Fold these 2 entries.
Entry 1:
Amino acid sequence: MSATSSVSITASTRVDQLPGVGAVRARHLAHLGIVTVSDLLRHLPMRYELEAAESSVQELPGKGIGAVRGTIVGTRWVASHGGRTRGRFEATLEGQGGRILLTWFNARYLVDKLHPGHQIRVWGKVDTFRDYRQMVNPKWELLDDSQAPARDERIRPIYPASEQINSAAIERLIGQVLDAVLPTIHDPLPEELRKRNALPDLAQAFRMAHRPGDMDETGAARRRLAYNELLLLQLGIAIKRHYNEHVLHAPALRWSRAIDEHIRQRFPFELTEAQRRVCEEIARDLQRDRPMNRLLQGDVGAGKTVVALYALLMAVADRKQGVLMAPTELLAEQHMASLSNMLAGSQVRIALLTGSLPAAARRQLLDDIVEGRIDIVVGTQALLGGAVRFKDLALAVIDEQHRFGVMQRAFLRQLAGGAAEGEDTADAQNHRVPHCLVMTATPIPRTLSLTVFGDLDVSTITGLPPGRQPIITRVVGPEKSDDVYRYMVQRLERGEQAYVVVPAIDEENARATNAQLKSVRAHVKLLQDKYCGQRFRVAAVHGRLKRETREAIMKRFRDGFYHVLVATTVIEVGVDVPNASVMVVEHAERFGLAQLHQLRGRVGRGANGRQALCVFIADPTTPEASQRMAAIASTTDGFKIAESDLEIIGMGDFFGTRQHGAPPLRVAEIPRDLELLNLARRDAQTIVDADPALTAPEHHRLRAILTHQYGQTLGLIDVG
Ligand code: ADP
Ligand code: MG
């Protein structure tokens, strides 16, 4: 008995243990995200095609849909005068009862794939030319085994595939494991719930997806698998909420009209209506002894910082501490500067914790923080991990956070840990955490904030502070670049500064993407030589520079030493250079909509009444790219943009898959499955209300999956 045939197949079997899957094929499968049989099973068809029953050549219809098998007896590539890749590939297939001509247009790659002697099955549209049957651009698959049984009419699943592995090969592989693995799949859904919602059981659903009997089955499979994802997501959220409400607690902060007025006196301007409303929402949360878990969203420049300061000062007013975390040191410094301004002459003690602090000063500062001699600490999230302990941390504000919430709970608990390790077991047992405010300029469409981020409460600052000039947006073709840069120079002459954003880092990288991307280096040279000359200084920042170098260059740009900053999207987050009022984005068609909006938000941050201008140089080659360009040009409202983005790309990619920490949805689509989502939400709530820790026997499987998917971030471990 050979080793391979004795392998009993379960979901966790690695695909490289399957017969016929060698190291190379395993690697190709891995590129598709398929490592285990479970991955294979979850590699679902993206659509289905009706495939004709296989027949002999004689029985093929003269015109219509057909399928036939045979041996290739001749091939040739017929180039058309247009060049190397244009032309047609022809193969003559000899099957039962005759020959048939197969033609594929512009498919030069077939020259290396199909050779005389190959046994193949082809299917598609049949036509007759001078009594000779032919098929144009038929689908095909190699038959490893000439004895493979003829196919009946059937629904053929079409899988996401790659150049190395086509859909038919994936289908064969799935066919190889399906019967063995289905009986080993246990449905995590309680029977009662499954019946109530008229859902097939999980093994059935996988069978229906991969080997449907009819089209209704594909629909039922999809519904079940989508529900599964949504239910798990909603359970995660419901458990987190429950945990937050019933297990954790946070210091309830005092608040009064007097405190409110006192805080607001510190601000150099009147709060807008929206800012006032949001401050009140936050104040209400902070007065409770349950941890606030709030997301503050507001477009770039909407004025979130002052709201954060309001919340931090509430902590200080109650003689507790607050911390403000920024994604970069530069931004932390900027926050420090504006907080210091607003707090000048007050009793509030604030400190900046940066990487450049000498060791002795750092030790002193850490000591001051833990002894309560500092009220507000500003720093980057990285700097605040690990060593920092607070005496009495009441609030953590996380600025420009794009990974929402998931990893934060453990981190915050650790920050709140008080004095030294071990001394504080009482607090640890009390599950004490600080309140948490997360700020983001990536607006979340309502459908998402209600669902995926359902464990966060959301506050929104709408509109911009008064006196802000709207940004003018232009989308132009590449042939206009010369005009664009000439105009940019005119603006530089008036004392303004400009960003130029490019997608790639160096020539090698640019070539790899097969398009003539403007790289940072080449672009700096072009701008310097052709447009800026001796008068204006051009600098570059990109992700390959060391962080310190990058921030040093940014600083010199902010201070006006450099006039033009050529950058990759590293400037996307948080930088505030009021004097920079022009932005040019090269190859804008390559950027996501949300990203373009973030980039645009870097200009027009106020100052000097200058008219901010953003030019997207784009050459959209897909309908989707054109849609994006139209959307970015039509509005500066981040919420509208987020909604269009969701429509264009779907939720899976909304923040870039996995970025937000929630498991990505593979089957369910929002907003398409909104109804299913609401169903899952209600069901999840019912389950968690009755059994918050999922300890009932009928919930064991759900619990196991959730623990695996979310790890300890869910708090399940503490609950159990
Ligand atoms: P973001 O929401 O992008 O973090 P900021 O907090 O940096 O925005 O605010 C952008 C600018 O608007 C800052 O210069 C800030 O001082 C100013 N600003 C904020 N609120 C107001 C207001 N109510 N009135 C006038 N200017 C304001
Ligand atoms: Mg900000």
Entry 2:
Amino acid sequence: MPTIAIIGAQWGDEGKGKIVDYLAQKMDFVVRFNGGPNAGHTVLNEYGKFQLHLVPAGIFNRKVISIIGNGVAIDPEILIKEIKELKKKGISFRNLKISDKAHVILPWHILLDEWQEKERRLKQIGTTRRGIGPAFSDKVGRFGLRAGDFLNEKDFKEKLFASYNRAKNFLKPEKISFDFILKKIFCFGKYLLPYITQTEFILWEAISKKKNILLEGAQGTLLDVDFGTYPNVTSSSCTLASASQGSGIPTKEIDEVMDVVKAYTTRVGAEGQAFPTEMPAKIASPLREKAGEYGATTGRPRRCGWLDTFLLKYAAKINGFTSLAITRLDCLTGFEKLKICSGYKTKKGKTLSFEEFSISKLKEYQPVYLELPGWKEFPTACRKFSDFPKEVQIYLRKIEELVAVPIKLISFGPEREKTLQK
Ligand code: GDP
Ligand code: IMO
Ligand code: MG
């Protein structure tokens, strides 16, 4: 059985949590490999409804080993809160492992995130205020603290003090006392200690034993720090390459790349960021309400737009998708006509070839739409492709044709059972 990477194809919130929870039932390992508590992965299963920020969505399966990989930035306070809440619902954490190389988000990273956003004035990113940018900056700046540092109390204190002193240049020290933070963070560290290990070794052994491994991506390709809509992106990588870098699994061992695609497009962040297929408010608002398009982490309303297959083609190139998982098809029920963006025009009306496209110029492009018939109702139980209304089948076939990648999973409700393998 293969190693499968689950990657968000758009601006995040595609339904990765649901797809990972569905596939995890047949897995031996589930590995979160990027981002941090900026992620909000919703899972609805027999235990209830959960919004996971750091815990891998494989945790609901007792036999699955859930790994928080080295590519993740961990806020210990958020992680411990999440663990405690899940434990209360009967979820076992016997099989959780945390990479000793995962970086730790410190309280000043969160303050810095807020401060940096204010400094950007009219050019705010609209971050989740979870300290992501400053924590990953410290990682590449080689100032970061890692989960493995919790293993040595003296070293930890020294490193934390150095980090605190650096942060003092930016922050009012009276706001935050070092001794208080040290005590608090060290308590968190003690709690997490039993889970911390060299997770890459566990994964290398798993590969040699041909175990089933699912790599759970956070965010989405268009939020990738290199290939996304920079600077309005997150601070870690979200493409396939990060699945390897953030877990220690060699790229050649990843057999399948499944990109999760919402049947339309959403984006959350500051106002005015590029979004060519954004719907006018009179269409977007009812869809947002009906579909509950509000951020799982921050509760912010998500901007809604039509499906953009031009951007999906771009994401397919970067990630080398081998298959697509389409989610939230049911949310498009009731539209008389559906639009799909198949290409772009420049402001002067020139049709853009794929080679001429630049993600940095996204704001300059206007979408070219195809119109497809909508569907009035969505059957609650669909066991095979032919159970879907004819119009749904047409919509899906058009996506496959335009993106040139086969659809393997179709999701038509938040619950596990509302998933069909094509
Ligand atoms: P993620 O960050 O990619 O895991 O996605 P989020 O959890 O932030 O947002 C996806 C939302 O869509 C969640 O509320 C899911 O429960 C919900 N969802 C996922 N798949 C479907 C689907 O096929 N239909 C409906 N109606 N909701 C879905
Ligand atoms: P999941 O895994 C949607 C967005 C933020 C902001 C930008 C930078 O649930 O799909 P950051 O806090 O990372 O510095 O914010 O990225 N963003 C997400 N949007 N889903 C996510 O994760 C996101 N993680 C970050 O809204 O625009
Ligand atoms: Mg989300």
